[in-house]
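Chain A, query sequence.
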Amino acid sequence: MRPLIDNPGDSIHKINWRRCPATLRSEFRHIVRVLINGELRPTHVRERGFQNRTRDGVIGMRDNILQWLKLARRLDRQGVSQLSDCTKEHGKAYAAKCTSGCTRDHAQAVLRWLSDLWAFDQLSVSPCGATRPPWEDEGINDYLPAETGEAGGENKTEPLDLTVIGPLPTWSIRLIEDFSDDILAAWAEPRRMHARAKATPSTWEVWPPSKNVCRSCSTPEISCPPG
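Chain A, predicted structure.
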């Protein structure tokens, strides 16, 4: 996939076709070529609602292809030798396996990748007959893990008891009122010292070297130690 990468510093991603069963390899190669060279219809993207781009980058394509190859190996173990023989029941079973124990966002991404196999096959001049995933008709929510409340950046820490949280604002205000002068003085003192140090000339500027300078220690000969 080197020609698809614009940044020379990025890693070079490759497709290992040896990981695809020989019986399904030609069909998956065909759809992967459509994935790389084509893009989804904008109307199709708007209808799905859980993908907002008609064409993924190299990383998205790589993840997509890796998921397709996993599906191909599973179908091969079940005796499926062509995509047209992959039924909706196969799709449901594989989706349940892939989305078990993962987050809702990752499960949604997996189902999107599986839907892309059918969607890009539809863009081909000679489709392989990939089956339309059931969640495209029935809705994706029934195939996703339940909401746990852990996503979205919510605070998972238990709230403090009112008997604890109540006195905190009172003591915070009292701290500011009682020690405000000291706080401001502590804040102003380092600023004053920094300004004074910046305005004070260095020793070299106050005492420029005279012509009679010791060559060994660079001090005036009058103050140079013996020897």
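The mean pLDDT is 78. The first helix runs from residue 22 to 37.
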